[in-house]
């Protein structure tokens, strides 16, 4: 890789995604629109390879900062590239590219027209750019900008199919997400007033000497972050917008939002809490206890809600509420294992939920059936789709050899280190509940017979996209060393510990 | 040399499963040969390993460096015992299944999962650490689920749901226990190395861990009150009931408990925990309750299922006495019960396919129509009761010896009482079958009958052979005992 690129890679990933996004509307006139779609996938692939390169770099040579335009902080914008960024960039690339590849098959038909499809691509790339921005940003101002971009873009891709249901869902989502942004902005305001800085490292240094002078103000500020990011990442009980938005949107949007968008805000939350404020202060405030509690509630409640749904996509949406609970539980545990579990779950759930949504979308598209109870015998007509759905389900339940197991193991360890036996019970029970809401889908699809035999498998491009995600899940589950090392280091970065490679 | 062989035994059957799955429905013969061949190859490998191990008296362990997963296979007498039982009976069951499934549909699905389960069972047997064990144990649930629900319909779906719920709950307890153990030992999960690393664990922690494992594995071992799934799972086709619910799956649970007691905690640690009375009490209760409930069952397969529940507890009882003689009895019972019970299931399956009768009360005079089948059933049920010259006598003999040597007099009463109950629920079946006239119209026997009859007769003969020469099994069994007790 040329030096110019490798030195500026951190910012180039975001810039490339942004500029590719703005090019998309210009491409609607070209003869074959598939070219534009494949170009977008290609850019995402570039972003993935950039992310992998950065992750390797960070793993070997440690974290570094990058001053945009050569202006150093606090005057310029500073990007902080560490293992957290590396891990999330990889997640974004691994998940966003196959989703878009899957979408490319019938995007135009799904959203109505070529022009709309082109704008959809723009919004999609903007969302990915914003999430990548959240991964590398080192100051609170950019956190806010990226959060806003991500919010608007995700609202817009929910509304891509302009029927009444999705518009209503979008409106609900927009309202709540805007309230969330407001809270985040207030939180940033508090931190700015307390420290006079927006750069996370500066805030950290400032707070470590002076936070005892105004603990209440800090606590209030952090609560604002908690609520703001909690709404956006659908932390129970702030999840009310999610099931509607994720189940009414077109399949690629649901997959994207459930697997990546909610995680972006969690990464932002982690950065604010652990890098800007620092682990010492966080563990002194009751915030981690609240997160543990809400995480456990989310795991159980989300899974119970999911059980009650007969519509496949709604069931998957509620499953996201439950799985986000795992991530927050790991943050709440606050030790190295818990946070490693959080990061592993971010990547594992990202790939898994994307795969499940894509497979669900494939079933719905080919059969026209949205309810699980109607899906008898689909497994025989669409063996590959249901096969990868099985892979996703096993990963979600946390069976060894699938990625979900790795994160579950770390979270269990983290709970044991804290002697939090309730969390152990909830984690184990949560995966049983996941079995309860996912396995019936497979049972209906494979062990019940249907009369009509007209359904065909989806086109092979979509199969490739789904198989790619399935392979990612199995590879991460079977050979976790690279990702696990990255996740451990990311957890170490947040806690200020040295993690030996 | 042994590691590649183990891999072939474990994954070769998986390859056979894929082969069976892609063979078109018309090529029945090809699929049957694949199923038989794959089972035979893995059985031969296991026997070869057994010969090697017994002659050289050293059992190598292998670590497969799959990254940080710590995947480990190891050979030891206990694992080999389970492997020998399962893989040998698998060969017989594969012949039987060919006959039994002849008229049934969905053969591809059946035989693929049938073979897949064989490989996974061997994986359990050869696991060298708890993690690998857990992996295969969990996979076994998923690979056998399609076999349980094979017949389709509401009953099968219900039984499948019950089976998977019980198994997954059990497995999650095991996972929780493994993570806790990992914390306590600092990452050591290898069998045999764990108990030394448990030095600074408190008594409370040890007991908690033990019961997590015990309950977790107890689900598959069908300890009362965790046995509910087993009678329900009798809706499965008979080869499945015979192989999985008398041999592979239930013995996987028993094997797990044996591993927990002897390879994870070790005899001394369990002895010091002072929980023996509780464990023995649970086993005694299961033995008696299982027999009592079996008395009331009219559906033949359900009666056999409750008998299995009762007999599995014999093995556990022998294991929990913590005495060399009792362990010898337990291991012998594991071998003999499997070979005997599978014959009973095979016979029940033949009766069902040839006459359509499923209930004991319908069997009047059926012995005249199927003399060889009911003859083997009658002979082998004597073995279940524990009479000479059947193999079942010897395992009970050593169990009694062990109980006496460990001063557990009450167990003597339990074992004798249960033997009596066995006689009460097994003998009437044979007597009914050979008395009176059946009102069944004579009809042509199906062409596949011999596929079912030959394995049944061969295994019945095996029961007799072991009964007359019990010493045949002792090199292996003595090796297991020597592995855990320094005599």
In short:
Chain A has helices at about 5, 10-25, 35-60, 85-105, 105-110, 115-135, 140-160, 165-195, 200-210, 215-230, 240-250, 250-275, 280-285, 285-310, 310-335, 335-365, 380, 385-395, 405-415, 420-445, 460-480, 480-495, and strands at about 65, 80.
Please tell me about this protein's structure.
The complex is a heterodimer of chains A (501) and B (487). Chain A is an all-alpha fold. Chain A has helices at residues 3-7, 9-23, 33-61, 83-103, 107-111, 114-136, 140-158, 164-195, 200-210, 215-232, 241-248, 251-277, 279-284, 287-308, 312-333, 336-367, 378-381, 383-397, 403-417, 421-447, 460-478, 481-495; strands at residues 64-67, 78-81. Chain A has a domain at 288-501. Chain A is built from 22 helices and 2 strands. Chain A is globular and about 70 Å long. The mean pLDDT of chain A is 86. Chain B is built from 20 helices and 2 strands. The longest helix of chain B is centred in the middle third of the chain and has 33 residues, at 153-185. The radius of gyration of chain B is 21 Å and the shape is globular. The interface between A and B is medium-sized, with 28 and 27 residues.
Essential attributes:
heterodimer, A: mainly alpha, 22 helices, 2 strands, 78% helix, B: 487 residues, mainly alpha, 76% helix
Spell out the blueprint of helices and strands.
The complex is a heterodimer of chains A (501) and B (487).
Chain A: H1 3-7, H2 9-23, H3 33-61, E1 64-67, E2 78-81, H4 83-103, H5 107-111, H6 114-136, H7 140-158, H8 164-195, H9 200-210, H10 215-232, H11 241-248, H12 251-277, H13 279-284, H14 287-308, H15 312-333, H16 336-367, H17 378-381, H18 383-397, H19 403-417, H20 421-447, H21 460-478, H22 481-495
Antiparallel strand pairs in A: 1-2
Chain B: H1 2-22, H2 28-56, E1 61-64, E2 71-74, H3 77-100, H4 107-126, H5 130-148, H6 153-185, H7 194-197, H8 203-220, H9 229-232, H10 238-265, H11 267-273, H12 276-296, H13 300-320, H14 324-355, H15 366-369, H16 371-385, H17 392-405, H18 409-434, H19 449-468, H20 474-484
């Amino acid at each position: 890789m040329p030096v110019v690129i490798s030195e500026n890679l951190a910012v180039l990933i975001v810039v490339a995604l942004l500029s590719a996004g703005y090019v998309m509307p210009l491409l609607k006139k070209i003869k074959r629109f598939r070219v534009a779609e494949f170009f977008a996938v290609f850019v995402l692939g570039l972003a993935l390879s950039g992310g992998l390169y950065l992750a390797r770099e960070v793993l070997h040579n440690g974290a570094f900062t990058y001053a945009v335009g050569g202006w150093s902080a606090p005057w310029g914008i500073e990007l902080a590239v560490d293992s957290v960024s590396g891990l999330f960039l990889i997640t974004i690339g691994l998940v966003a590219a196959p989703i878009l590849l899957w979408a490319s098959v019938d995007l135009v038909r799904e959203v109505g027209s070529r022009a709309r499809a082109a704008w959809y691509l723009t919004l999609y790339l903007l969302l990915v750019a914003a999430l990548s921005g959240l991964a590398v940003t080192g100051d609170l101002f950019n956190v806010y900008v990226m959060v806003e971009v991500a919010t608007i873009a995700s609202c817009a891709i929910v509304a891509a199919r302009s029927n009444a249901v999705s518009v209503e869902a979008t409106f609900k989502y927009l309202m709540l997400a805007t309230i969330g942004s407001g809270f985040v902005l207030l939180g940033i305001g508090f931190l700015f007033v307390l420290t006079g800085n927006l750069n996370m490292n500066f805030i950290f240094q400032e707070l470590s000497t002076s936070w005892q002078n105004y603990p209440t103000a800090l606590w209030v500020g952090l609560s604002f972050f908690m609520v703001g990011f909690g709404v956006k990442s659908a932390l129970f009980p702030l999840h009310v917008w999610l099931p509607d938005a994720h189940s009414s949107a077109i399949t690629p949007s649901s997959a994207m939002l459930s697997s990546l968008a909610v995680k972006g805000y969690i990464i932002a939350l982690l950065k604010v809490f652990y890098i800007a404020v620092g682990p010492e202060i966080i563990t002194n405030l009751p915030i981690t206890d609240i997160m543990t509690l809400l995480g456990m509630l989310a795991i159980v409640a989300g899974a119970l809600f999911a059980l009650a749904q007969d519509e496949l996509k709604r069931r998957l949406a509620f499953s996201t509420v439950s799985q986000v609970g795992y991530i927050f539980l790991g943050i709440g545990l606050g030790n190295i294992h818990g946070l490693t579990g959080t990061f592993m779950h971010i990547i594992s759930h990202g790939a898994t939920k994307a795969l499940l949504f894509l497979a669900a979308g494939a079933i719905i598209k080919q059969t026209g059936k949205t309810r699980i109870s109607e899906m008898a015998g689909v497994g025989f007509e669409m063996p590959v789709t249901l096969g990868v759905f099985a892979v996703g389900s096993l990963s979600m339940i946390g069976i060894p050899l699938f990625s979900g197991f790795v994160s579950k193991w770390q979270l269990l360890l983290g709970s044991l280190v804290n002697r939090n036996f309730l969390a152990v019970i909830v984690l184990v029970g949560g995966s049983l509940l996941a079995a309860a809401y996912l396995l019936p889908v497979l049972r209906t699809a494979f062990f019940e017979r249907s009369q009509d035999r007209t359904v065909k498998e989806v086109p092979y491009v979509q199969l490739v996209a789904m198989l790619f995600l399935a392979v990612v899940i199995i590879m991460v589950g079977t050979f976790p060393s690279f990702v696990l090392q990255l996740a451990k280091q990311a957890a170490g970065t947040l806690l200020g510990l040295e993690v030996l490679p | 040399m042994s590691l590649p062989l183990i891999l072939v035994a474990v994954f070769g059957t998986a390859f056979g499963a894929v082969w069976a799955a892609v063979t078109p429905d018309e090529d029945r013969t090809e699929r049957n040969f694949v199923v038989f061949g794959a089972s035979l190859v893995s059985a031969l490998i296991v026997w070869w390993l057994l010969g090697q191990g017994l002659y050289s008296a050293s059992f190598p362990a292998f670590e497969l460096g799959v990254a940080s997963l710590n995947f480990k296979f190891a050979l030891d007498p206990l694992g080999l015992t389970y492997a020998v039982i399962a893989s040998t009976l698998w060969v017989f069951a594969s012949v039987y299944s060919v006959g039994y499934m002849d008229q049934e549909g969905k053969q591809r699905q059946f035989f693929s999962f049938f073979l897949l389960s064989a490989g996974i069972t061997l994986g359990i047997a050869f696991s060298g650490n708890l993690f690998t064990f857990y992996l295969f144990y969990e996979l076994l649930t998923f690979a056998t689920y399609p076999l349980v629900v094979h017949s389709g319909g509401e009953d099968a779906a219900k039984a499948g749901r019950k089976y998977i719920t019980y198994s997954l709950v059990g497995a999650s307890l095991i996972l929780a226990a493994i993570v806790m153990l990992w914390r306590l030992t600092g990452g050591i999960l290898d069998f045999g190395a764990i108990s030394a690393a448990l030095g600074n664990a408190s008594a409370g922690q040890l007991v908690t861990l033990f019961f997590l494992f015990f309950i977790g594995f107890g689900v598959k071992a069908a300890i009362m009150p965790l046995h509910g799934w087993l009678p329900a799972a009798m809706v499965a086709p008979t080869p499945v009931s015979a192989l999985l619910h008398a041999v592979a799956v239930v013995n996987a649970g028993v094997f797990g408990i044996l591993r927990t007691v002897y390879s994870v905690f070790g005899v001394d640690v369990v002895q010091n925990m002072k929980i023996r009375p509780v464990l023995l009490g649970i086993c005694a209760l299961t033995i008696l309750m299982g027999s009592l409930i079996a008395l009331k069952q009219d559906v033949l397969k359900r009666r056999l299922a409750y008998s299995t529940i009762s007999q599995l507890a014999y093995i556990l009882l022998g294991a929990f006495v913590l005495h060399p003689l009792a362990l010898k009895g337990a291991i012998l019972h594991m071998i003999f019960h499997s070979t005997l019970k599978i014959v009973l299931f095979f016979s029940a399956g033949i009766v069902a396919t040839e006459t359509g009768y499923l209930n004991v009360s319908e069997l009047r005079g059926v012995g005249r129509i199927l003399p060889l089948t009911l003859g083997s059933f009658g002979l082998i049920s004597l073995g279940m009761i524990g009479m000479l010259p059947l193999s079942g006598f010897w395992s009970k003999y050593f169990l009694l010896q062990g109980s006496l040597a460990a001063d557990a007099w009450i167990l003597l009463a339990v074992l004798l009482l249960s033997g009596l109950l066995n006689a009460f629920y097994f003998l009437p079946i044979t007597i009914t079958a050979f008395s009176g006239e059946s009102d069944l119209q004579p009809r042509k026997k199906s062409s596949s009958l011999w596929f079912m009859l030959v394995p049944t007769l061969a295994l019945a003969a095996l029961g007799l052979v072991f009964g007359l020469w019990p010493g045949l099994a002792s090199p292996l069994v003595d090796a297991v005992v020597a592995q855990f007790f320094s005599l």
